Amino acid sequence: FHLTIVLLNIWTHKELVSCVGWTTADELYSCSEDHQILRWNLLTSETSLVVKLQEDLFPIDLHWFPKTVGGKKQAQAEIFVLTSTDGKFHLASKMGRIEKSVEAHKGAVLAGRWNYDGTALITAGEDGQIKIWSKSGMLRSTLAQQGSPVYSVAWGPDSDRILYTSGRLLIIKPLQPSAKLLQWKAHDGIILKVDWNSVNDLILSSGEDCKYKVWDSYGRLLYTSSSHDYPVTSVSWSPDGEVFAVGSFNTLRLCDKTGWSYVLEKPNTGSVFSLAWSADGTQLAGACGNGHVIFAHVVEQRWEWRSFEITLTKRRTMQVRNVVNDAGDVLEFRDRVIKASLAHGHLVVTTSLQCYVYSATNWNTPLIFDLKEGTVSLIVQAEKHFLLVDGTGVYVFSYEGRLISTPRFPGMRTDILNAQSVSLSNDTIAIRDKSDEKVIFLFDALTGKALGDGKPLTHKMEVMEIALDQCGPSSDRKIAVIDKNRDLYLTAVHRLYREHNICKIGTMVHTMAWNDSANILCGIQDTQFTVWHYPSAVFTDKDLLPKTLYMKDASEFSRAPHILNYVGTQVTVRRCDGSLVYSSVSPYPALLHEYSASSRWEDALRLCRFAKDQSLWACLAGMAMANRELTTAEVAYAAIGEVDKVQYINSIKDLPSKESSVAHMLLFSGHVQEAEATLLQAGLVYQTIQVHINLYNWDRALELAVKHKTHVDTVLAYRLKFLQDFSKKETNKRFMQYADGVEVDWEKIQAKVEMELVKEREKAATTSVRSSLASRR
């Protein structure tokens, strides 16, 4: 990122500028102690006087009424709140006419902010009071009273909490009267400005101790800057929460959300008292102490994918470079670039009015289509299509520009969706709910309808990050979830059985990414860089999972790294200081996934023998069992020394019927109920009872025997033998009840068991003959 600074010297204020606010992406209002409100048009570079305020009105803060109200977009902001030193706030129209003035505080009104849906206004005063007002300016409540002035205030993402300053303290107060407030010492000097982003839920603060800091919403410190030469007078998040701006005396900084600085500019502005971002996040305006209004455009963004590097050189120009042959192209756009994404062989660029789709094989002829909304806040790409998020909805487009679907759910707020809360694969869309962060909505990407019975996936903890795997059939789609405890879970998107089987596969995972061409997951787990070569092993054989991992020390990535992507065999990691680190991963597991997907089991065995890697053999064992390829599984388990499992697989191969084999493979994976259902459906009652006897599920074995009126004596005999082996007496009342009238005769039981096995073999043979006759016809 880079900032292009513009000072429009057409007309400047005669006194310090106290506040600025954008009406559209190209029009800004500024207020100054010279009592003037100026309108700045960036398209025409013109400045005009909106209104000359009365001589005793000295403005302090300005905030435009939100454009999006209840999901409906207004064409432009029509009214704004202006706070002043005389203890009043004023509701003013776009023409500058003051519609209403309200006596709000004793002393100056230091801050005034609308909430996100425009239903309430909060003001903070020199008198230490914080008050909530209706849209029309009626007092609703006094939220807080304290002895020191409140210099800055901000709404929480859901407009249900307030963040405000109290000297050196930051305080978060929920609007519910009974809820507990959270407060902490944040700075060594008076805190001057705060901002709270609705997308990433992070808090910014700056103060007279000449530092700015980043906090999470629990008051935990994520970043603290070094000391500046002067107090930090302003901070402001960009709308998408990816970057923030910092203003001080003759200083303007652009920083990443993790705190490190992209760029430092030293314009001759005096102190920057207020900063405001345009709604599309491409432009920044600052209110300066010397009467100037400073404008900055964000350029020099960079995107990388395989051998391509793309840079936004100007607001409407991109430079494409292929690092392999040093070939270059220049892409020109009609309007300024707002968002871009490069992945899966395509570059998707959104401007203020259009969307451009380029193929990496042809940079000359993009596919262009118009956007309804304009301000795209997020682009997510998959192999076959991409997803756009704007202020009104979520849209899935093909790379040919065709609208595929528009998934929706009740209460969906698109303005707070980000890359951690939205994931896309070729067939599925996953969106984490904001009102209940334990809930993940799953949609069919091609229809936009909810998957399965329409019920969302609900986790037991708040979900911080979600990611869908990118390869394989839709029936095998998996979603990885990092929760608030930083535990990593994996579950199938389509319910294999009655409930979502959510399995924990990692702890203390800070960041993760799926590979783009194989279902391999990488993440940074505590102090280890970890690659889960075959995460789905957890559904087939939990004991295998640790053996399929590749781990190495992650100290080279420093503290709080973030994985940007995992393409081919290369993982790109952003360190906390902003530098990029690349880590290479073995190509063999991806090759093994390819062989497994195309049922080339001989090639898979050959690869494992060549690589001589235990983790590769463990992956093959899991893949073979998942595909019911018992011969390959037997070889793979033998290679990793799992003798008991080799014997069990051998016993499955000897079973007379297909149903029994399937049931025992389900048992192998720990799915007892599904194995029971499979056997009962095939009419193999004795085999079902025997399974429960082998698992010591005595109550269920007896229940089935009584229900089907068969083999009650068999269950009682095995139970008696079990008790005799452990020198115990019967205490189970049900067994005591049935044992009274039943005589255990082992010879009879053995004969009955033999008879059952003969019946099963005959049934299997009959089925085999029928199927072969049917195939001949």
Automatic annotation (TrEMBL):
Main location: other
Domain named IFT80 second beta-propeller: residues: 300-588
InterPro entries: Beta-prop_IFT80_2nd, TPR_IFT80_172_dom, WD40/YVTN_repeat-like_dom_sf, WD40_repeat_dom_sf, WD40_rpt
GO CC entries: centrosome; cilium; intraciliary transport particle B
GO biological process, one term: cilium assembly
Limits of the IFT80/172/WDR35 TPR domain: 616-762
Signal peptide per UniProt: 1-19
Protein name as catalogued: Intraflagellar transport 80 homolog (Chlamydomonas)
Gene source species: Oncorhynchus kisutch (Coho salmon)
